[in-house]
Amino acid sequence: MTNPSPGFDLFNTGIYIRWYGVLMALGILLAVFLATYQAKRKNMHEDTVLDLCLVIIPFGVVGARLYYVLFELERYLANPIEILYVWEGGLAIYGAVIGGLIGAVIFSLKRKIRFLKLADLVAPGLVLAQAIGRWGNFFNQEAYGPPVTDPNLLWFPYAVKIDGLHFFNGAVCNCEYSVHMATFFYESLWCFLIFLFLWFVMRKRAKHDGDLFLWYVMLYAFERMFLEGLRGDSLWLIKPGQGFGGIRVSQLLSALLFAAVLIFFVLRKLKEKKEGRLLWPSPEQKDDALSEADGDASKETEDGESPPEEREETSENKDGEEREDEKDKD
């Protein structure tokens, strides 16, 4: 089991390009493409999507870094300049999502576009970008799980070899095979399955603005809630030995998000069933309103009454005919 280089020399120019950056850029481009494609279905201009991406991408990068720095504050306060060294690692996906959401809220208020509509635009592309970006962890040899000691399980994608001196939960790992569970791959696969579900199932069945985004949050949080407990590079809210056996930031946040969205879905479903209507406007609300108006007009016609426009026109024609008859008599 061998690992590829984390990067390459660009055409022997001495410019070193990391695969992590290449994969992240590819994921972002695909996310922008999918959001643009989605915009057509929501009667939005493509330029609006591009403008949105110019806002949420930098917000997401800054959020990803600040989230990581916040929970490693002691380290970065000792040498603040390292906060800018993003090429050395230290980006958190939850921070990226939070930062991107802040940017999207600002954009929606500025452009007066419903936020939930924008969130649905980016959700499928976002999770696909995560699926692709996780392979950057493979090239960087990071985001791995516990050591694998069973010689029958030393195969990829179940496990991945980590070269040289490395750490697990802050301690030097002296495992026999230097092979760990490939948790980055498990998450990449799960994110890709979420993308397939959102794109081919929920995109057609969603009844409310925001459904795609909320399903993304719930499904991703469900996976991260378990996998985070396997990783050896977690950010800690309470470190082991300080109480509660240690609490991982992303694991706690994932549990809260999963529970919150699930409870919301259940309560909304029960209330909608009771009231017999959607509590949030559906993506096709305007079309439904038009259909109802057409249906009302058709109903009036079937009952023998003409629509208001036709009745006015008939009345005008009748008055005109009466005036013509009077002229003939004169």
Walk me through the topology.
Layout: E1 7-9, E2 16-18, H1 19-41, H2 46-70, H3 73-78, H4 93-111, H5 115-133, H6 135-140, E3 159-161, E4 167-168, E5 171-172, E6 179-181, H7 183-205, H8 211-227, E7 236-238, E8 247-248, H9 249-275, H10 285-302, H11 308-329
Antiparallel strand pairs: 1-2, 3-6, 4-5, 7-8
Helix pairs in contact: 1-2, 1-5, 2-4, 4-5, 5-7, 5-8, 7-8, 8-9
Structure overview:
The structure is a single chain. The protein contains 11 helices and 8 strands. It has about 325 residues and is mainly alpha-helical. The strands form 4 sheets. The protein has a two-stranded antiparallel ribbon with strand order 1-2. A two-stranded antiparallel sheet has the order 3-6. Strand 4 (about 165-170) and strand 5 (about 170) form a beta hairpin. Helix 5 (about 115-135) runs parallel beside helix 8 (about 210-225) and helix 8 (about 210-225) packs antiparallel against helix 9 (about 250-275).
Condensed summary:
The protein is built from eleven helices and eight strands.
Radius of gyration, in angstroms, nearest whole number: 28 Å
Largest sheet: 2 strands, antiparallel
Give the terminus-to-terminus CA distance.
109 Å
Give the DSSP E fraction (strand runs of 2 or more residues).
Answer: 5-15%
In spatial order, strands of the major sheet run 1-2
Q: What structural category arises from helix and sheet content?
A: mainly alpha
Helix content: 55-70%
Taken in chain order, the helices and strands follow as EEHHHHHHEEEEHHEEHHH
Q: Helix count?
A: 11
Number of domains: 2
Mean pLDDT across every amino acid position:
86
Give the number of DSSP strands: 8
So what's the overall shape?
globular
- Give the low-pLDDT segments: 286-314
